[in-house]
Request: fold
Amino acid sequence: MSVAPPKMLATLRVNGAEIACAFNPNRTLLEVLREDLALTGTKHGCEMGHCGACTVLVDGETVLSCLTLAVECVDREIVTVEGMAGAGELHPLQRAFVECGAAQCGYCTPGMLLSAAALLESNGAPRKSEIEAALAGNLCRCTGYVKIVEAVALAAERMREAAHA
Ligand code: FES
Ligand code: FES
Reply:
């Protein structure tokens, strides 16, 4: 009979909040976010690194949370889709996704949003090909991608305008 490893106590920084938690060291970040912290915006897809549904940001970089142990993320900044909106206001990417019809079933949307956010953080004026490359690891079974790419371009344009206002 196998015995589960003892739980470790750790503090995770998620969406700007310090959260004390206890988890087994073999638990993935996806499992801890969804099952322990009830942050179910991060989606559970293939669990093999193929679909991108589980994408979150760790220290500003996109990470597949299904392939990342939670213990690797201690003392790092984790951002999930729940952390994107400001006080009562959608993130420009979220607003653009709504306006462009870039979300249909929405299962891929959290991962798409976070991959796009990481892109716009490093490149405020991406070309279409750069948006497509940044989202290449995020699969969508509904939209055909055209509206998603349009939404990211629209959000980028608005964020540039806001920065220069
Ligand atoms: S669930 Fe992580 S890549 Fe598919
Ligand atoms: S909107 Fe359904 S998978 Fe992308």
About this structure: The two ends are 64 Å apart (CA to CA). Residues 103-109, 140-143 surround FE2/S2 (inorganic) cluster (ligand 2) (CB under 6 Å). The chain has a mean pLDDT of 96. The CA atoms of residues 27 and 69 lie 6 Å apart.
